[in-house]
Design goal:
By secondary structure, the protein is α/β, with parallel strands linked by helices. It is about 40% helix and about 20% strand. β9, α8 and β10 form a beta-alpha-beta unit. α3 (about 90-120) packs across α4 (about 140-150).
Length: about 280
């Protein structure tokens, strides 16, 4: 996908994945003579949004191979069943050693992007944008958030360091929403402040306190409409809590600006892809 910035931790992520798979060495691949050459094709078994080509390539790069990889599709593009995604030629040992790790990245990230696009399509035309959450697979947050963008979604904060999200327990510890927002402004005035609210009264207080965005936690449809009418576009509204593919359209039609869905990264199903390896004669 053009113009998408790759995560800075990509190299480290691949290093960790290879380390847990190879360990002290791929003993089975060493049954093959080192000079043996092979070719391979990666084939899709279902329709999906492709994502993860950079991770796939990095696997073989870190194996110090001279593999040649030719892609026929790019990240963010739709692939169909039985479509050839890429072709590889080079050392047989390297192909066999890197196959599973490379496919793991490609299948998982394609699965994330594919799920994201299904939600994006469900709210198409409403003006509401789909957000991800921090409910990502451990160690793969940057990768999955990249996949969210490839699927047409929008990233929420990356972690606990780049934006404030004041939740119920923060409010209880601070005393009030107003005090919590003021403390956030004092600590880092340049960072956005979002407040999770559970009632319309809290919406009023957070609005008056000067929050940048409100997270409407588990509001039903009538409550969401009331919140939208109350705020009147003064700040952005995010709906969250129990959102499904079946319910997201109705939520978007209430007029909220964002809907966050943890399932798009937490409950992801890997796309069915396979790699066929054959001798290069």
């Amino acid at each position: 996908m053009k113009n998408q910035q790759l995560p800075t931790e990509l190299i480290k992520t691949v290093q960790n994945a290879l380390a847990e798979d190879i360990g002290s060495g791929d003993i089975t691949a060493h049954l093959i003579a080192p000079e043996t050459q092979a070719k391979a094709q990666v084939i899709s078994r279902e329709q999906a949004i492709l994502c993860g080509t950079a991770w796939f390539e990095e696997v073989f790069k870190q194996l110090r191979s001279q593999l040649q990889i030719t892609w026929h599709v790019q990240d963010g593009e739709t692939v169909k069943p039985d479509q050839i995604l890429c072709e590889l030629t080079g050392e047989a040992r390297t192909l066999l050693t890197g196959e599973r790790t490379a496919l793991n990245f490609l299948q998982l990230l394609s699965g994330t992007a594919t799920e994201v696009q299904s939600y994006v399509k469900a709210i198409n035309g409403t003006g509401t944008r789909l957000l991800d959450t921090r409910k990502t697979l451990p160690g793969l947050r940057q990768a999955q958030k990249y996949a969210v963008r490839c699927g047409g979604g929008t990233n929420h904060r990356m972690g606990l360091y780049d934006a404030f999200l004041i939740k119920e327990n923060h409010i209880l510890a601070a005393g009030t929403i107003t005090k919590a927002v003021a403390a956030a402004r004092h600590q880092a005035a340049h960072l956005p402040v979002e407040v999770e609210v559970e009632t319309l009264e809290q919406v009023r207080e957070a609005l008056q306190a000067g929050a940048d965005r409100l997270l409407l936690d588990n509001f039903n449809l009538p409550q969401l409409r009331q919140a939208v009418a109350l705020v009147q576009g003064q700040i952005k509204l995010e709906a969250s809590g129990g959102v499904t593919l079946e319910s997201i359209r109705a939520i978007a039609e209430t007029g909220v600006d964002f809907i966050s869905v943890g399932a798009i990264t937490k409950d992801v199903r890997a796309v069915d892809l396979s790699m066929r390896v054959s001798p290069d004669k």
